[in-house]
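Q: Given only this backbone (93 positions), what sequence would you predict?
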């Protein structure tokens, strides 16, 4: 089964962006078996970079930002496909 990770930038968990992504999921599953995992950026812990460069010097696992960035990165690297979604407000993302 193919694994698809959806990264959603929408602040509304069940809004129109989610609904159109579910339509995409249904259409894709009509052509084969796909497992979708949804990641809502509103719900995950992502911190701003502190600019310390520790990750560049020692490795990402030593980053002082103890957030979910590496977990999300691993999910993206292990996925067969990635979908990025964002709502459109006033004709812009």
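A: Predicted residues:
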């Amino acid at each position: 089964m193919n694994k698809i990770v959806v990264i959603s930038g929408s602040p509304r968990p069940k809004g129109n962006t989610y609904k159109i992504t579910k339509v995409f999921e249904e259409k894709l599953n009509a052509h084969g078996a796909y497992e979708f995992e949804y990641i809502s950026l509103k719900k995950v812990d992502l911190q701003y970079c502190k600019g310390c460069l520790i990750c560049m010097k020692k490795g990402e696992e030593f980053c002082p930002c103890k957030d979910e960035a590496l977990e999300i990165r691993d999910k993206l690297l292990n996925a067969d496909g990635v979908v990025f979604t964002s709502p459109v407000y006033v004709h812009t993302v």
